[in-house]
Amino acid sequence: MTTATPAAGSRDLPHPVREDIRLEAVLHALSDPMRLQIVRELAAERTELTCSQFVLPVTKSTSTHHFRVLREAGVIRQCYRGTAKMNGLRRDDLDDLFPGLLDALLAAAARQAARLGG
Predict the structure, then answer these.
(1) CA-to-CA distance for 16 and 45, rounded, in angstroms?
(2) What is the CATH number of domain 11-111?
(3) Is-above-0.70 flag for pTM?
């Protein structure tokens, strides 16, 4: 898999290029309830959010792991702005590669949350 490689010593994080985003990696990343919650919040906000803006019932190291899985799958893009790590949904890339997938998954997740009272 080709990734955009950050410059030596930079705080940029590696991301897969659009052409290397794989459906199975995206589906795996979204199969976890915490990661799906992150994506739902990013989709609802339609803007970048810092990691600290997410209230997840997990430890900081587990939260970091979830963000890394999403980034490495090509679902989110992370970048540093000052000391804040910003997270943005790669909606354009996902919609281009897998038309309708993200909207269908988000709609299904919303229906499930309503059904389960969450």
Answers:
(1) 23
(2) 1.10.10.10
(3) yes
